[in-house]
Amino acid sequence: MRRLLIGADVGGTSTRVAVADRTGAVLTVARQPAGNPNAVGVQTSAERIRAAIGDALRQAQGFSAEAGVDAVVLGIAGFGTAIEAGAEFLDAALPDEIAASTVRIVSDLAVGYASATPLPRGYVVIAGTGSGAAEIDRGEILARRGSWGWLLGDEGGGFWLGREAVRSALAEVERRQPYGALTRAVLDELKIPSADPADALAGLVRVPYLSRPVELAELAPIVTGLVDSDPAATAICAGAVEHLTRLLLELQPRPGRPIVAAGSVLQTPGPISAGFAVRLHNELAGPVLEARSGLVGALWLAACDSAARTGSEPPDPGLHARFVGTLIER
């Protein structure tokens, strides 16, 4: 019987599930809409995970008439909510043919770390819409900084960048200062009339409150794009680098252990990713690894869980490389 591994990357944009065999061959990837339980609710999250796993398994069965599932790792943004939901969540999220005893729920930070390296212990900093950092050991969080969400934290992430851009524009308009490039770009992007300062001020206050908070993250590329031409954008980007560096350094990383950068802000070439890499090189004299697909991390952790459960030797690092190679275009 062919033995299968299942890895899931469940986030605020999509729910993706990969099925692989123990040789590292990824048989299929299935997708469903966003599955973060904090964003869509526990029940909807479970339903979408179940649908994606079911789709992936049906497609994978085409490669092998008989197959069994050795291990499942669900990497979930908002994993704490899923864990708190307990057995009811797993019952709703798993197809009937998968035993709950084969499943582990881990953080999106854990799969982000494991996507970049097969080494079990190290550090990850994530800056997408939000931000956070963690020390990871075999998929478990030993210590964490940030990841508090847009209302309480997320400094240096996309939402924070957008909010700081709006605040900078508000300050210029309120003080009747000449509009800088960033202020003009924010007003244009939010479709706020700029001729009358009173209208601009009212619009800058009103429009963000009428939108979902995370939509401010759409302003992040405007900020980074103006870093060389607008002093406010320069200061915001420098602040982001400082916040993200501090998140990691507060974990007191040990030299020699991997440091992984994840999320769109840190993985898009630009002033923040470059500044972060330079700061870490100066502080720690070590390289920063770039996260791969979260499915790589979830499958690798599933392979490690399978080996641990059967008392086998840990999987060869070459298996991790094969996951990367077969998932790079997916």
Automatic annotation (TrEMBL):
Protein name as catalogued: N-acetylglucosamine kinase
Signal peptide: none
UniProt GO MF annotations: kinase activity
Domain ATPase BadF/BadG/BcrA/BcrD type residue range list: 6-267
Keyword field: Kinase, Transferase
Lineage of origin: Bacteria, Bacillati, Actinomycetota, Actinomycetes, Propionibacteriales
UniProt xrefs under Pfam families: BcrAD_BadFG
InterPro entries given in the database record: ATPase_BadF, ATPase_NBD, Euk-type_GlcNAc_Kinase
Organism: Microlunatus elymi
